[in-house]
Design brief:
Elements (H helix, E strand, L loop, with lengths): L8 H16 L3 H6 L5 H13 L18 H11 L5 H4 L6 H11 L2 H13 L4 E4 L16 E5 L2 E12 L6 E7 L10 E7 L5 E6 L13 E12 L3 E2 L5 H37 L1 E3 L2 E2 L4 H31 L5 H26 L9 H9 L9 H14 L3
Parallel strand pairs: 1-4
Antiparallel strand pairs: 2-3, 3-7, 4-5, 5-8, 6-7, 9-10
Helix pairs in contact: 1-4, 4-8, 4-9, 6-7, 6-8, 8-9, 8-10, 8-11, 9-10, 10-11, 10-12
Length: about 400
């Protein structure tokens, strides 16, 4: 890709779609059997993407990416989201993209050299350790993990889970309380820690609805036991953890919505293919029934409305910053997550018994993306936040 300009976005999206269809979708059956075992094959595909100049499209040029504007990346991300490996193969997968953005924003030169450069290059993976099983889930203010300063070090103790991609990650960004007596949003700080640190205890990959994937597609439980890091490993000022979490989660929520659009588009494709092929009576197929036609139309409406909202919010955030787009980000988080569930449910229903098996893409998507209405803040929390912001204008 030229250093000074990007090709027209539809041309770029078409190139990526062709790669996804040709190189990645055929790998899905093997991926569903054992995602971790497929990583060597995916690494070869990642090298092809690098040679094509399409690596790390969403990250700033100064961080080692291609600098694609957020609204344009939304279009590209939809194509990548059509298969579970798309974002990973193109170097823009969560949690790495969020961690890279956070390091670019708040990292010291030494932290960027040690952690950001190899992360953006795809030489290592990372994870983000904030959520806790018994206290802080949707609300990081309730963190119980503690980081106590002892001279030139912090000693961190705590229990984390749903640390996505921790299995095989080289380092983590950990959120821990440094001053429990400070105001609620100034209690926590963030720290960088190598997963080879003796205090980092990998407990397990958490089974998700019967599956326990390894590798980058995993969700791990972690114990932090007297994990010592130097003061220089703190990311940003002490007490800035909550602020940095919001800086990370703002774009992260938009990225999720972009990916969900791709899953919706793929599900609609699978529904339409199923409808025109499946014979339900002599000379009659699913596509001939008004009910299935209605599902297809409803899917199209959910996708079109969600796409318009995501593009609008991406453009707003790009021009005015994520803080200015906070209300709109909350809206798309629960609106697009809900649309995703509806599209997947209709698609699964149209597949009948096949839709419950891993012979169908929709079964995998339905199982793993039910969490869309939970992670990065459950629907209910976003709805309350949006309503409060709206009501402020009337009080």
């Amino acid at each position: 890709m030229a250093a000074d300009a990007h090709p027209p976005i539809e041309e770029l999206a078409a190139r990526i779609r062709a790669f996804v269809d040709r190189e990645l979708i055929p790998l899905e059956a093997e991926f569903l059997k054992n995602a971790a075992a497929l990583e060597p094959v995916l690494e070869a595909k990642r090298e092809e993407v690098r040679k094509l100049g399409l690596w790390a499209l969403a990250l700033p040029r100064e961080a080692g990416g291609q600098g694609l504007p957020l609204a344009q990346f939304a279009r590209v991300s939809e194509e990548l989201g059509r298969t579970p490996t798309g974002h990973y193969v193109f170097g823009v997968q969560a949690p790495d993209i969020g961690n890279a953005e956070l390091l670019h924003l708040a990292g010291t030169p030494e932290q960027k050299e040690r952690y950001l450069k190899p992360l953006v290059a795809g030489r290592v993976r990372s994870c983000f350790a904030m959520t806790e099983p018994h206290t802080a889930g949707a609300n990081p203010v309730l963190l119980s993990t503690r980081a106590v300063r002892e001279g030139d070090e912090y000693v961190i103790d705590g229990h984390k889970w749903f640390c996505s991609s921790a299995d095989g990650a080289a380092f983590a960004i950990i959120m821990a309380v440094t001053d429990p007596d400070a105001p609620p949003y100034q209690r926590a700080s963030m720290f960088l820690a190598d997963t080879s640190n003796p205090g980092w205890k990998f407990v397990r990959n958490i089974p998700v609805m019967g599956e326990a994937h390894g590798g980058y597609f995993s969700h791990a439980e972690i114990r932090l036991e007297k994990l010592r890091v130097p003061v220089s490993a703190r990311l940003g000022p002490e007490g800035a953890g909550f602020l940095l979490a919001q800086e990370r989660l703002g774009p992260g929520r938009i990225h999720h919505c972009m990916r969900w659009l791709g899953i919706c588009a793929r599900a609609q494709e699978e529904l339409c293919k199923r409808a025109v092929r499946r014979e339900i009576a002599p000379g009659k197929r699913l596509a001939d029934t008004q009910l299935v036609q209605s599902w297809i139309a409803e899917n199209a409406a959910d996708i079109a409305c969600s796409r318009a909202l995501v593009m609008q919010v991406a453009e707003h955030a790009e021009k005015h910053g994520f803080k200015a787009a906070r209300e709109e980000v909350g809206i798309i988080k629960f609106q697009v997550a809900g649309a995703l569930q509806r599209v997947l449910d209709r698609t699964l229903q149209a597949h009948g018994a096949l839709g419950m098996t891993d012979d169908a893409f929709v079964a995998f998507a339905f199982r793993h993306e039910r969490a869309a209405r939970i992670y990065d803040g459950p629907d209910e929390v976003h709805k309350l936040s949006v309503a409060k912001q709206i009501l402020k204008r009337y009080r």
